[in-house]
Amino acid sequence: MGRRAPDNPRYQRGAEVGKTRRSAASAKPKRGKSAASKQAAKTTRRGRMLAPVPTSPEYRRLRKVWGAALLGAIVFSLVAWWQQGTWFGTVVLVLAYACIFTAFYLDFMKLRPMRKAAIEADKAAKDEKAGKSKKDRPEKAEKAEKAEKESDT
């Protein structure tokens, strides 16, 4: 195998021997992470996936209405597709859009604030359990209190 580039400094006379390019392996992170950082990463990742869901009767009722609106939108869309070009198909398509907009309204205006309030309350409970007070996180505590007041009304 021949030399790659004769004008490369490592092949010149008087060059410092042993100067080679670093391998990609030296740029990789080391494997010896602490158990605490692994546990913290695991809980934050899992915490996002398993966020607390409100269990109030109002939330359950609104969630059922939301699901029914989405199911109605799917059914009405299929009927409208089957009856396209007729006046009945147009009316059913309008009903499908009404169901979709109802589902969006319920999700954005009613259900999300309830979920956010539950998440904030869960964080506050975890902080109190860990020994942190609300004074340590004043802005988040204010948001949680505001969300609780909004969910009560």
Please, could you describe this protein's structure?
With about 150 residues, the chain is mostly helical. About 65% of the residues lie in helices and about 0% in strands. It is built from four helices and no strands. Helix 2 runs antiparallel to helix 3 and helix 3 crosses helix 4. It is flat. The mean pLDDT is about 80.
Helix content: 55-70%
The counted number of beta strands is 0
Strand proportion: under 5%
Annotation field: number of helices: 4
What is the chain-wise order of helices and strands?
A: HHHH
User: How would you state the average pLDDT, rounded?
Assistant: 78
Q: In whole angstroms, how far apart are the ends?
A: 80 Å
Helix-strand makeup class: mainly alpha
How does the overall form come out from the CA principal axes? flat
- Stretches where pLDDT is under 50 for at least 5 consecutive residues are none
Any idea what the radius of gyration is? 30 Å
Main sheet properties: none
Quick overview:
The protein has 153 residues and is mainly alpha-helical.
Descriptive keywords:
65% helix; mainly alpha; 153 residues; flat; 4 helices
